[in-house]
């Protein structure tokens, strides 16, 4: 039945489904996973870097984490070229708001404006949906720390802990069991590493295979976005006992 209705993004099937949008979500299921966890003093984002070949020059900049504005960052799962377009759009939106109102853009407003763009690509002919999901982490004076997840359909929602990409169902069920409402940022980092180590396809977790970033407030009250260095990640993995002996001997 689906074959008759899946050639266009703009046609509903008799069951009320948009197949092309569902296929875009399916594409994200094959991408490296990303996990976001909200804590009382910050938001933690962690992403799995898929090393497709040993010959690849490892990037010095982050592949999965992007800073959108001083108070908002995001983790990405899906087609990176699609993500770059949307990230640039979000950065421009945030700067326009700051220029016009002389204050940072509220996090949800930024997420909503980006999701409006995504939604347009599911409603007009000749366009394909963006094959990318985002986890947005940010802080604003209205609602404090926030974590949002958005998918190719243009839907978004606020989450306490969320997972996108490969094995996201398994990650989500572990998060559901282990997430604590009043956890600290350090506990959130520990939980994120634990979830990723259990759901990643590769056997051992090393600093080359993941990226970890945090959004938190400095003692002076400024919002800080911090990406952990490989050395810092190795220390964290050893501290929380996630690194397996096989990874250390290699």
Automatic annotation (TrEMBL):
Protein name, entry field: Proteasome subunit alpha type
One GO biological process term: ubiquitin-dependent protein catabolic process
Keywords on record: Cytoplasm, Nucleus, Proteasome
CDD domains found in the cross-reference section: proteasome_alpha_type_4 (cd03752)
Family matches, as Gene3D superfamilies: Glutamine Phosphoribosylpyrophosphate, subunit 1, domain 1 (3.60.20.10)
Record's subcellular location: Cytoplasm; Nucleus
Stated family: Belongs to the peptidase T1A family.
Pfam family, one: Proteasome
NCBIfam families per record: PRK03996.1
GO terms for cellular component: cytoplasm; nucleus; proteasome core complex, alpha-subunit complex
Positions of the Proteasome alpha-type subunits domain: 5-27
Superkingdom per UniProt: Eukaryota
InterPro entries, per database record: Ntn_hydrolases_N (IPR029055), Proteasome_alpha (IPR050115), Proteasome_alpha-type (IPR023332), Proteasome_asu_N (IPR000426), Proteasome_sua/b (IPR001353)
Cited function: The proteasome is a multicatalytic proteinase complex which is characterized by its ability to cleave peptides with Arg, Phe, Tyr, Leu, and Glu adjacent to the leaving group at neutral or slightly basic pH. The proteasome has an ATP-dependent proteolytic activity.
Subunit structure: Component of the 20S core complex of the 26S proteasome. The 26S proteasome is composed of a core protease (CP), known as the 20S proteasome, capped at one or both ends by the 19S regulatory particle (RP/PA700). The 20S proteasome core is composed of 28 subunits that are arranged in four stacked rings, resulting in a barrel-shaped structure. The two end rings are each formed by seven alpha subunits, and the two central rings are each formed by seven beta subunits. The catalytic chamber with the active sites is on the inside of the barrel.
Species annotation: Microthlaspi erraticum
Entry-linked PROSITE patterns: PROTEASOME_ALPHA_1, PROTEASOME_ALPHA_2
């Amino acid at each position: 039945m689906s074959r008759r209705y899946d050639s266009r993004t703009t046609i509903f099937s008799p069951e009320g489904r948009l197949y092309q949008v569902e296929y875009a979500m399916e594409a994200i299921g094959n991408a490296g996973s990303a996990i976001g966890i909200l804590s009382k003093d910050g938001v933690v984002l962690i992403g799995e870097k898929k090393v497709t070949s040993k010959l690849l020059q490892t990037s010095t900049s982050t592949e999965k984490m992007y800073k959108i504005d001083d108070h908002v960052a995001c983790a990405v799962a899906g087609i990176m070229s699609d993500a770059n377009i949307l990230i640039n759009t979000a950065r421009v939106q945030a700067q326009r708001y700051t220029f016009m109102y002389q204050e940072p853009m509220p996090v949800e407003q930024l997420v909503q404006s980006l999701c409006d763009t995504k939604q347009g690509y599911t409603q007009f002919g000749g366009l394909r949906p963006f094959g990318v999901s985002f986890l947005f982490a940010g802080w604003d004076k209205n609602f404090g720390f926030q974590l949002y997840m958005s998918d190719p359909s243009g839907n978004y929602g606020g989450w306490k802990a969320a997972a996108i990409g490969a094995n996201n169902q398994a990650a989500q069920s572990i998060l559901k069991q282990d997430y604590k409402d009043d956890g600290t940022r350090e506990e959130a980092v520990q939980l994120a590493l634990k979830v990723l180590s259990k759901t990643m396809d590769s056997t051992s977790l090393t600093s080359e295979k993941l990226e970890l970033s945090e959004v938190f407030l400095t003692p002076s009250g400024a919002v800080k976005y911090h990406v952990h260095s490989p050395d810092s990640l190795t220390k964290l993995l050893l501290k929380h006992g996630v690194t397996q002996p096989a990874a250390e001997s290699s």
